[in-house]
């Protein structure tokens, strides 16, 4: 018996897969490694996430100028942003299919190509000789292509972090990729009004998009050796997740327990409602605040405070969940979701004249909690399904579906001109807060088991044990090769209780 477990005559309690008394456990002979190459790829995702985020919000601050210059209505300008959310839903469903068949790099190549096409199709719509209808058709076609590019660099974030980062960096990498898009959206709102005329502004967006496209060359598919056990597994198809969620027969690696299915559905609803709430707020913020006496600048500052607080909190908390609160995702959600839900609900009473301080406080609370939860929810989706790209696709798709529904529903509840104040959105805020508080209450039913992390930690322990067992075996073999007579003399000498050279023997008189 060459291992400590065999000499002990039983099973090591640390190894749940070993049932024999004198057999080595079935530990995969895989070397887990990290490569510096992961950081350029992460940078590529961040750059492209920033730029694709700009496409959605670019026309919001200059909506009146675009309407005047292209002789279209403001509603048509709003659809330049809405079309991206509509395209996002089907596009995000196809991304896991492409990823499972062709890998991360091919997906990002497609996203980069779509971004480049969108930039110059949109700019073609600025030609002065075009009729308003033809110009608008090219503008919205450009946004259509941008709608395919945007989800690529969001949906693939969790699978990239799983492929390239270990347990101490996965959540942080997911966070950096996830927040790049909202940061880009904020940058788009800041840049579009200050870069010249409407046509010059569209040209600048095209140049920024073109310069960013080569960043796809920084992204690689997978490292030579995986960072963790989960990182060594191939991407599962979207169909396997759909079948698993419905309780249909699936391969062993795609199986999801009933409780995990319930948790994932709840997580998807909560993620969707909170992302949708943020999307609708960014589109309707001026319509919320201006009827009660706040300027467009103040409405923009309220949105900026939400975003800035969220970015700071995400940067601080994501590394903590990687290294300190590694098994506390469920507890974090049960704390943060009720807090942010109550904050959204409080806007029903807070959106009133001369209440700017309270509004800023509420926006900071919403931003801090929401951005902190963003990478946590994405990582929990992978923990529950062990299917990184497909779970992210479900979550982001849910967010855009909720966003579209909330924008349309709240727009329909705008008060008439005869109301006091005219065109107020009080009924819309009631709908907004009630949706979030009802869906958010489901968080108390989430168990939040981190099955993927448990499997990774088990494999790391097994690998360490195997290395130690190999060293023990090698040491025993080397000791056995010593000269047997010399060894026995040493053993007898060391074990003898009385040796002449160790004690002083007195003669008996």
Plain-language structure description:
The chain is mainly α and 509 residues long. It folds into 2 domains: 34-223, MFS general substrate transporter like domains (Growth Hormone, Chain: A), CATH 1.20.1250.20; 237-467, MFS general substrate transporter like domains (Growth Hormone, Chain: A). 70% of the residues lie in helices and 0% in strands. It contains 17 helices and no strands. It has helices at residues 4-8, 38-57, 63-70, 74-124, 132-155, 157-164, 170-191, 198-212, 238-245, 258-289, 296-323, 329-350, 356-385, 388-412, 426-440, 451-480, 484-495. Helix 2 packs across helix 4 (74-124). The longest helix has 51 residues, at 74-124. It is globular. Residues 1-27 and 482-509 have low confidence and may be disordered. It is found in: Membrane. It is a multi-pass membrane protein.
Q: What can be said about this structure in brief?
A:
With 509 residues, this protein is mainly alpha-helical.
As a whole number of angstroms, the C-alpha radius of gyration is: 30 Å
Number of strands: 0
Mean pLDDT: 80
Number of domains: 2
Architecture (CATH level 2) name of the largest domain: Up-down Bundle
What is the molecular shape?
Answer: globular
- Proportion of residues in β-strands: under 5%
* Biggest sheet features: none
Q: Structural class, from helix and strand content?
A: mainly alpha
Name of the CATH first level of the largest domain: Mainly Alpha
Helix count, per DSSP? Answer: 17
What is the CATH topology of the largest domain? Growth Hormone, Chain: A
Catalogue the unreliable spans: 1-27, 482-509
Quick one: CATH superfamily of the largest domain? Answer: MFS general substrate transporter like domains
Quaternary organization: single chain
Distance between the termini: 54 Å
Give the H and E element order. HHHHHHHHHHHHHHHHH
């Amino acid at each position: 018996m060459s291992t400590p477990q065999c000499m002990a005559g039983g099973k090591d309690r640390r190894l749940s897969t070993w049932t024999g008394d004198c057999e080595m456990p079935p530990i995969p002979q895989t070397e887990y490694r990290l490569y510096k190459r992961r950081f350029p790829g992460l940078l590529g995702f961040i750059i492209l996430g920033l730029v694709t985020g700009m496409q959605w919000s670019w026309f919001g601050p200059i909506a009146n100028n675009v309407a005047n210059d292209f002789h279209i209505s403001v509603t048509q300008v709003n659809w330049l942003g809405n079309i991206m959310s509509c395209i996002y839903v089907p596009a995000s469903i196809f991304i896991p299919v492409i990823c499972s068949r062709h890998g991360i790099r091919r997906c990002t190549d497609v996203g980069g190509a779509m971004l480049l096409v969108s930039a110059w199709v949109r700019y073609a719509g600025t030609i002065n000789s075009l009729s308003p209808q033809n110009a608008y058709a090219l503008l919205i076609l450009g946004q259509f292509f941008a709608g395919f590019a945007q989800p690529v660099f969001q949906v693939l974030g969790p699978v990239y972090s799983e492929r390239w980062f270990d347990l101490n960096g996965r959540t942080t990498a997911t966070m950096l990729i996830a927040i790049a898009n909202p940061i880009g959206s904020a940058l788009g709102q800041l840049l579009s009004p200050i870069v010249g005329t409407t046509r010059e502004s569209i040209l600048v967006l095209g140049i920024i998009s073109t310069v960013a496209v080569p960043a796809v060359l920084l992204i690689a598919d997978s490292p030579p050796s995986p960072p963790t056990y989960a990182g060594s597994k191939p991407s599962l198809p979207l169909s396997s997740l759909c079948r698993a969620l419905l309780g249909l027969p699936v391969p062993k690696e795609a199986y999801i327990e009933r409780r995990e299915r319930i948790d994932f559905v709840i997580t998807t609803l909560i993620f969707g409602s909170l992302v949708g709430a943020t999307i609708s707020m960014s589109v309707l913020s001026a319509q919320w605040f201006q009827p009660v006496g706040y300027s467009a600048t103040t409405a923009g500052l309220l949105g900026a405070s939400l975003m800035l607080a969220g970015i700071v909190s995400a940067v601080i908390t994501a590394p903590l969940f990687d290294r300190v609160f590694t098994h506390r995702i469920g507890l974090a959600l049960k704390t943060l979701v009720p807090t942010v839900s109550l904050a959204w609900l409080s806007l029903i009473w807070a959106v009133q004249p001369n209440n700017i301080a309270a509004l800023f406080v509420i926006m900071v609370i919403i931003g801090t909690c929401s951005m902190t939860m963003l990478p946590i929810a994405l990582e929990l989706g992978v923990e529950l399904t062990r299917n990184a790209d497909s779970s992210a696709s479900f979550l982001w798709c849910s967010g855009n579906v909720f966003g579209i529904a909330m924008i349309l529903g709240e727009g329909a509840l705008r008060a008439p001109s005869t109301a006091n104040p005219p065109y107020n959105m009080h009924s819309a805020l009631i709908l907004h807060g009630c949706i979030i508080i009802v869906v958010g209450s489901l968080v108390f039913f989430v168990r939040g088991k981190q099955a993927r992390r448990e499997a990774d930690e088990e494999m790391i322990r097994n690998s360490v044990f195997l290395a130690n067992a190999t060293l023990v075996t090698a040491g025993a073999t080397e000791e056995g090769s010593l000269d047997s007579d010399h060894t026995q003399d040493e053993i007898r000498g060391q074990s003898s209780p009385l040796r002449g050279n160790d004690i002083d023997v007195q003669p008996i008189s």
